[in-house]
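Quick one, tokens below:
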């Protein structure tokens, strides 16, 4: 019964003509018209093939991948994405190296007097004994 009702509703959607009210309701961009994407979203949601939230999530994902903003995911977008990831990895590697340096300084400082540790902490040269 549910499948039959869904089929009837889908048939009505395919047979229907757009009216002015429909255009106003479908026009998410509020630009006075219905884009191909707006129309497809409406039809898929109305036919219960996809829910609106999932559709919007997919559009958001596309927008995150379209780094050049030209409406396509291109080699240039993927190159930019890869470069950003490499910068993040490089930054993490630098932070890790800095952490290791601090740990080495801390171990080195633990084997010396309190005064020596303070000098290491502020990077002052050690006083020469007379």
């Amino acid at each position: 019964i549910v499948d039959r009702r869904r089929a009837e509703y889908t048939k009505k959607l395919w047979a229907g003509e757009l009216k002015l009210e429909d255009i106003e309701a479908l026009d998410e961009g509020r630009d006075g018209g219905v884009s191909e994407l707006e129309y497809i979203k409406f039809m898929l949601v109305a036919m219960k093939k996809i829910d609106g939230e999932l559709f919007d999530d997919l559009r958001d994902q596309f927008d995150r991948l379209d780094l050049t903003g030209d409406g396509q995911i291109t080699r240039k977008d993927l190159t930019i994405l890869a470069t950003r990831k490499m910068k993040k990895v490089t930054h993490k590697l630098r932070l890790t190296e800095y952490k290791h340096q601090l740990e080495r300084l801390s171990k080195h400082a633990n084997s010396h007097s309190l005064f020596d540790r303070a000098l290491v902490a502020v990077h002052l040269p050690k006083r020469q004994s007379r």
